[in-house]
Amino acid sequence: MPDPMYDHIIEILRRGDAATALKEAQAAVAATPDDQQAQRLLALAEAFSGNPQAAHQSLERALALTPQDASLHYLRAALLVTEGREAEASAPLGEAVALDPNEIRAYLLQMQLAIGRGDLDEADRLGRLVARLDPDQPRLLVQQALVALHRNDAPRAHALLQRAEPRAPGDTQLRYARGLAYRAQGHYAFAEQAFRELVEKQPGAFELRFLLADTIRLQQRYAEAAETLAPGLEADNAPADALRYAGELWLAAGDHARALPLLRRAAAGQPDDRPTQNALLEALRRNGDSAEARNTLDALLTISPKQDLLWAARLSHEPDGGDRRAVQARWQSALPYSIHAMHAGMDLAAEAGDTMEADTLARRILEEDPKHRGAQVYTIRNLYRTDPAAAVRYIRGMLHDIQDPGSLRMVRGWLARSQDKAGDLQGALQTWLENRRIGEWPPLPPDPVVATRDYPPLAETGADPRAPRPMFAYGLPGSGIEMVMGVLVGNVPTVRNDRVANGLPADPFSQAGTAAGLAAGTLDPKATVEAWRRLLPMRQVEGDHVIDWLTHWENAWLYALRAELPEGLLILALRDPRDMLMDWLANGGYVEYAVEAPLAMAQWMAPRLAQVADLIEGDLYPHREVRMDGIDEDIEATTRAVATALGTELAVAEVHGPSRLPAGYWRTYRDALGDAFALLTPVAVRLGYPED
């Protein structure tokens, strides 16, 4: 039992005045050095003052005086746990319960340690021992609640904590467990309040501060979460993972300036950590200061030169006109066997026209990794240019290792182009057709509806001709419409490609019955256009100033558009229809369909192109033509063509498309595809292309 003469020291300790308690305990020991209670209180005061070594010495003196005192063995174990020496605590805890089987605190500490190492069955066993002594012991209920949380049983944890609350109101561990229970059930605001109260009482407890910040993050208040962590990150020895987390929070909040210094410190502390590297590189990218990025990366590389990711980032930030090959040489020197470094060297050598160096590096890469895609692509392109028959053999050797349908289609595309260049036209055609059959695609849509009655007059717009106007864009597979839309996406914020990307929206211009209903007069033209307009806000478009990429076009829609949307404009991507067929066959379309033969493709294209020719010849609706003949994948030329068609100026956007067959290449396959070309020639002539 505690000696009443020492009650004032205990009260001072409860108030948290460690300095005064230490002074009083030292005086008590000086007065009665053989009193184990005085030695015990001195140990506690020394522990609270941050001197665990002295605390252990005082405990040893107390134990020498009363070695059979179970509470002293418990106190030694508790002190070891606070120092992070959990493994050493098991012996004194065992001694405590051996001396006093009713020492509940020892069982509870053992239970806490079992939970910490994930041994929930042992925690349950210890909990049952305590329950025999005091089933409503509040700390037992808290520990049982923590076990329940570890087993993802938040409702049981909450019920246990409710039982504990009346017996230990305001208990720190109970409040902590309650916060965890609220968090596990998704009640983040309640969890935040519980953790906030704990942080206010223990502002230096970083683990609690971290938990509070993470709970605020779960409510998507990223800047506030980062601010919550800030007081714990001011010290020079702040944990690197916490610095990274705070930096990530600022990135999520859109403030890279606040993230950068934290992420630099995190990277200095753990330069080899991939998540830290990724976060730092993202902050540098958003910062947009290439010089600062280079300086930061160079500093990191002096600490951690064996990191491919950092070298790749450093190379990417080398300015135009800089010596990128010198950076790559430093990379290769630091990591002589890095395939990533060799890959970068291969690409730079090829870019510089150093074919011998690029070939050497490609061979080295493939010796290390025979399936390295970058080196395979370089080898294929090199052989395609110098020896297409060898390219065919090389590609055939790759095919048996490829399982993914997308990769298989890409490699078969290379095979067909190599066969084509090697003069094996039938082989190329066969490979292209086999490519079209890889995967499961919907059938070709039915032919367009034929208009059987006159269109209504084009209504007067009454709008300012200089004002933005609603636009539609359309092109058949092989027309180059993807490049046209890429230019527009890079210049106009209201371009919508959702019909192509995911089949949305479900408005009249994506519904099969609209054309037939308008042609028959059973659909109201005004209601049709209004139904299209109603869905525009859902597509994040204000008003109707949109460029709407259509997956198909029906002249029957003109029954609605001429009367109800006369201010609209149709953008048409066009090429020689026979080149369009070849391109569709070689590269696929922006929307894929199941096709059996080139003749079936031509039969599907012909009526669609005929209605486009009808629209152009009759000027049935305001339209602009973007002729893609001869442009291939030249994005600058595409930009000029689109700008000229629209009568405006456009910036060159970052757009990449497949390697197109040159204009007029259809003639190479005249004999093999004569029937298909014969079907398309009449409409080609109508669109302004030569018959032969």
Structure write-up:
62% of the residues lie in helices and 3% in strands. By secondary structure, it is mainly α. Among the domains are: 4-180, Serine Threonine Protein Phosphatase 5, Tetratricopeptide repeat; 471-686, Rossmann fold, CATH 3.40.50. Strands 2-3-1-4-5 form a five-stranded parallel β-sheet. Helix 9 runs antiparallel to helix 10 (154-164), helix 15 (240-252) packs antiparallel against helix 16 and helix 15 packs parallel to helix 17 (274-287). The longest helix is centred in the C-terminal third of the chain and has 21 residues, at 598-618. The chain is elongated and about 115 Å long.
Condensed summary:
The protein is mostly helical and 692 residues long.
Number of helices: 35
Question: How far from one another are the termini?
Answer: 112 Å
Write down how many β-strands occur, each being a DSSP E stretch of 2 or more residues: 5
CATH class annotation of one domain: Alpha Beta
Q: Radius of gyration, rounded? A: 38 Å
Structural class: mainly alpha
The largest sheet is: 5 strands, parallel
> Mean of residue pLDDT?
88
- Oligomeric form: single chain
Helix content: 55-70%
**Rough outline:** elongated
What is the CATH homology-level superfamily of one domain?
P-loop containing nucleotide triphosphate hydrolases
Unreliable stretches:
none
Can you name the CATH architecture of one domain? 3-Layer(aba) Sandwich
CATH topology of one domain: Rossmann fold
Strand order of the largest sheet: 2-3-1-4-5
Strand content: under 5%
